[in-house]
Structures are given as structure tokens and as C-alpha cells.
Design goal:
alpha/beta; eight-stranded parallel barrel; two-stranded antiparallel sheet; 12 helices; about 35% helix; about 15% strand
Length: about 325
């Protein structure tokens, strides 16, 4: 496993991170989750990402239980806030930030997180109020650094212009070889301002593993077959995309990689990407994905990828 500095912070994060959206505390039980976390440590993964809204607190609670077996200094822990936790609890107001950080820390069984992220931008709260409240969280020692997820370039630039507050060190966008939108504005802006990328859905909800085939039902134990998780597959589950993805099979084989490793190595080719978040329901998936770290794709492989998926890329 290789490690990268997260933006302008002093956090050294593994190139592969283990996430918990739709999995731990929800579709994946405690025993299997424990196996995945154990495998993550065995594979050199030190970065764990979650959010208060995942399973309405269940993912944080389970992750807190599983990480309690490990020294706090041995891992980097990130969580988020914004989405509703109740009819009255949502957003990035001063009151919500103060309330939700304490609730997350209690569920995670720790006195601080390494990274506290705004899960989305809050149009209803003044940006200055949000930044000042996040600064207070850092000053209190409850979070070491702050980040955001899916903010646009104008919102990022506005946050950088707020005086006297802590600066963001991370951005968490959707990014994969099928979804390249962050490359145009977000990544260049972030790179200039000491903000690193922690990308989610680098496997396009599992589509880039090649396990979903056009015209065939999804494997029984897959994300797409789950009533809870399948509804998030979106456009990636279309027959057009699935047919195109099959063209990557010989590309991966020629590179000596699995399809998942090819897709992860592709996002990690970008210098501004510090880590790629994977979701796993089995420890074997964690081990396989972790092996994508430090893989360098040559020019011919990158050209073959672009040629194969050109018709379905969103950029």
C-alpha cells in the first residue's frame, strides 16, 4: 500500500480508503463488516470514511465498535454532516455543526475525527457561519481538518475568500473513468489551493468490476440485486454502459489487472487524488482493491481505456 499527503494537511492517507455508505450498519452485518475492516488493516489501508446519515447513525456506530480494537493513532477517520438526521436536524448551521460533531464522536467512540466534511453545500446557511462553526470544531480539537463533498467551483472559491477561518484540505467528488466532471474545474482549483481529492464511486457503483452484464440479471449477492442499494445504480446500469464496460476486459487482462484494479489505478493516476474510497461487503474485495495501490498505467493502457469508453463518458 502506498500513501499520499491529503492536500495541505499533514495527514498521510492510504491510496485506497474503506467507506461505509449503504454497507456497514445497513446491508452488511457485524461479522462481515469486522472481517472487511480487519482485511483493510492487513492490506495497509489506514483511511476510513463514513457519515452521520449512513444508516441514520448505524454506520458510524458500527465503525466505532470495529475500530475500537485498534490504536487511534493507527488510522485516519473521516465523517460528514449535512443531510437530515431528523425532521429538525439538517444542514450546516452553527447549531447543527456543534450538535452533529458531538453525536458523531459518541457513535464513533473517539474524542476527535481527523477529517470533518460538509456532505453538500448548504444554500440556507450563510457560508461565513458554516466556516466559523467548522473553525470552532477544529479549535476545540474535535476535528483536525475539514473538507467538503460535491461543492462546485464557485462555492469552493467563496469558502477560500472567507477571512480568519480554517481552510479546507479535502474535496470528495464522484470520480471514475466513466464520470470525469471534476477534471474540468474542481481539480485544478483544488490543486492550486492545497485541497486534495478523496473520490467516491471510483468503480461506478460496481459497474467497472465487470460483474454486471447487459441483458442478464445481476449476481444475487451484488449491489444491484439489493433493494436497498440497487436504486443508486443510476445511468451506470444501462445496457449501453454495461456493453461498453465489457470492452475493458481485454485492456485489464493485458495490464495484468482485474477490472476493479484497472479502474482504481485510473483514478489514482491523477496527482490531485489522495485516495479512492471503495465499498466492500467481503474481505476478498478489500484485498483485491488494495492491490491497485502503486499501479502505474502506461500510455498505451490509458489510450485503450479512453477508446473503449469514449461513447459513455460524462465529462
Amino acid at each position: 500500500m502506498q500513501y499520499r499527503k491529503l492536500g495541505a494537511s499533514d495527514l498521510e492517507v492510504s491510496e485506497i480508503a474503506l467507506g461505509s455508505w449503504l454497507t456497514y450498519g445497513a446491508a452488511v452485518g457485524r461479522r462481515r463488516a469486522r472481517e472487511c475492516v480487519r482485511q483493510a488493516f492487513d492490506s495497509g489501508i489506514n483511511f476510513f470514511d463514513t457519515a452521520n446519515v449512513y444508516g441514520e447513525g448505524a454506520a458510524e456506530k458500527m465503525l466505532g465498535e470495529l475500530l475500537a480494537d485498534h490504536a487511534r493513532s493507527s488510522y485516519v477517520l473521516a465523517t460528514k454532516l449535512y443531510f437530515p438526521m431528523s425532521a429538525a436536524d439538517r444542514g450546516l448551521s452553527r447549531a447543527q455543526i456543534a450538535k452533529q460533531i458531538d453525536a458523531s464522536l459518541a457513535r464513533l467512540r473517539t474524542d476527535h475525527v481527523d477529517l470533518y466534511q460538509c456532505h453538500r453545500y448548504d444554500e440556507e446557511t450563510p457560508l461565513e457561519e458554516t466556516m466559523e462553526a467548522l473553525t470552532r470544531v477544529v479549535e476545540q480539537g474535535k476535528a483536525r481538518y475539514i473538507g467538503f463533498s460535491e461543492w462546485n467551483a464557485a462555492q469552493i472559491a467563496a469558502s477560500l475568500a472567507v477571512p480568519g477561518v480554517v481552510r479546507f484540505v479535502s474535496s470528495q467528488p464522484q470520480y471514475s473513468l466513466l464520470w470525469r466532471r471534476p477534471e474540468k474545474e474542481i481539480m485544478p482549483l483544488c490543486a492550486r489551493n492545497g485541497i486534495g481529492q478523496i473520490v467516491w464511486s471510483p468503480l461506478a457503483q460496481g459497474v467497472l468490476t465487470g460483474k454486471y452484464r447487459p441483458g442478464e440479471p445481476p449476481p444475487a449477492d451484488s449491489r444491484a440485486a439489493s433493494e436497498r442499494m440497487g436504486r443508486y445504480m443510476g445511468r451506470h446500469a444501462s445496457d449501453a454502459v454495461l456493453c461498453t464496460v465489457q470492452k475493458l476486459t481485454p485492456v485489464a487482462a493485458a495490464a495484468g489487472l482485474t477490472m476493479a484494479q484497472l479502474a482504481l489505478a485510473w483514478v489514482l493516476r491523477e496527482p490531485n487524488v489522495a485516495s479512492a474510497i471503495i465499498g466492500a461487503s467481503r474481505p476478498g474485495q478489500v484485498a483485491e482493491n488494495a492491490e491497485a495501490s502503486a499501479v502505474t498505467l502506461d500510455g498505451a493502457t490509458l489510450e485503450a481505456i479512453d477508446e473503449a469508453v469514449a461513447d459513455v463518458v460524462t465529462s
